[in-house]
Structure formats: structure tokens, C-alpha cells
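Reopening this ticket.

The earlier resolution said the output was attached, but the attachment link was broken on my side. Pasting everything inline this time so it's all in one place.
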Amino acid sequence: MAAWQKWEIAGFVTIAVALHVSAAAVLMPEQIAMGADIPAPPAPVAAGSGKMSDLIEQWENPPEAVTEPELTEPEEIAEPQIEQPMPDAAPDRAPEVSQVPSAPQLSAAKPNLPETPEPQPEVVEPELPELQSFEPPEIKSELALDTSTRPDHKPARPKPQPKRQAAKPQPEPKRQAAPQQQAAKPQPATQGGGARGNSSARAAGGGSGGVSAQQRASLQRQWQSQLGACIVSASRRANTSRRGNLQVSVSIAPNGAMQGVGLDLSSGNTRDDRAVMRAIQRVGRCPAAPAAAGVTESILIQLPIKIR
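Inline output:
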């Protein structure tokens, strides 16, 4: 398109120049003819040669009008045909565009949750043969309280021994007096000694008499206090896990042997209860009852115990 415009402008410029040139050629002779009259030259003093006269004559005569040349229309200049390059034939189909690499797919961040366990396969339970019903055997617990059987015959109390009479002191042998001195008759010592012997015998007889009921009860209380201290000391050796309170019953023979331990009140922890009862059973024996206390049968002590 730009080349066509250039050729068109060049053609117009050429036509304009030709018109201006032709107009100038037509107007110039007319201006000369229409100019002011030229004054006649002075008469020559002397006639000149023929050539000179001819020149003067030509000078005096006006110039012949110049015939205007016939203006011919300018030939139309054929516009050059510019062969425009033909565009290449479009391909049958657009070239295949290589696939744009897709952006990597970002996996969504999974929350930090515990993995769900995979479902377990169903377990087919095998058919079991029918079990015959039977009564369970009676199992005796080790912690059960062993009750002491009361003897059929009450042992007879030992009879008080008869009072021993104090031996009479033998009379001292008579000493031989010196021949110069007259031997004095010794007084019989049996009288005084016998009185002292009788009094001591009576004192002994009164002291060895039967123990009163008040004294016997006091001795029994002292023995039970000793048994309680023995049981509490044994319970502290138990390996327990926490603090608590429980109450036990302990059967003890007169000789101090433990015959059974039972639980009256639990601490709330079965393991600690069993540990305390085993620790008490391991002691085996506590102080025996004093003979003067008159204890002939096993006694049952109920004692609260604090687990530390």
C-alpha cells in the first residue's frame, strides 16, 4: 500500500511541473509584445553598412508573434503494476501446539490425625462342641478366717499347792567354854526362830494365793495391747500402692500363734487389702498370754489399720 501511494504522488508532481512550464512559455512573448514603446534611436550620423541597416531594421520592426504551440494532453502514465507477494498458502491445519506442561498437582496437606485402623477381616468363629454343665468345686480362700474350735472338755485349773511350812532352824551346837570361864547356858534359839519362820510362812502363804479378777482383767488388756502392736507392725511391711484405711480380724491362740486373718472393711483397693493380710500372716506368732491372765482359749481381735 505504501509503494502505490509513492507512485501516485510522483505522477501528480510531474503533471504539475509540465503545466507550469507550458504556462510560462505562453505568457512570456505576450509580455514582451505588450511592453512600453521603445523610443526610436537617434538618427545615425552616417549611413552604415548594409548589414548594420538590416540589423536596425530588424530592431525597429516588432517581433513576430510566436504561435502558441499546441499543448498536447499528457499521456496517462500507466501505473506500474506492482506484484504483491502472494501470501503462502495457509497450511491445512494449524501446527499442533505442544501440550503445555501442567502444573504439578499439590496434594492437600493432611491434618496430623491418628491413622484409622484398617478394618479387620471378619473372623469366622469355629463351631465349638457343647460343653457339659458341671458344678464348680468349692474353693476355700486363703484369706478366709480360720475359726478355732472350742475344746470339748475344759482343762482343769491347776490346784493350788499346799503351803509349805517353814523348816525349824536347828539349835546351834554348844561351844566349849574356856576352862578359866564358866560356860554360860545358851538360850534356846528355837523359840525366836520359830516365830520368825511362822511369820514368813504366813506371808508366803498369803502372797501365793489366787489372783484377783481385777488383776486378771488388767493382764488380759496388756496382752491385747501387745497383740495390736504386733499386728500393726506387721501390716506396715506390706507393699501397698496408695494410702487407705481397712479393718481386719485376727484369731490368736493363748501361746501367741496366729490362727487366721479376715477382712472386715476394705480400703477400696483389693490389691492393697491382700498385701496387708499376707504381711500379717507372715508374722506367724505374737507375744503369748501371761499365765496369770488365765487365758485358755483363742481370742478374736478386730483392729483398724491405716495404710501409709
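Reporter confirms the inline version is readable. Residues 176-209 have pLDDT under 50 and may be disordered. Residues 214-307 form a domain with the Fusion Protein Consisting Of Minor Coat Protein, Glycine Rich Linker, Tola, And A His Tag; Chain: A; Domain 2 fold (CATH 3.30.1150.10).
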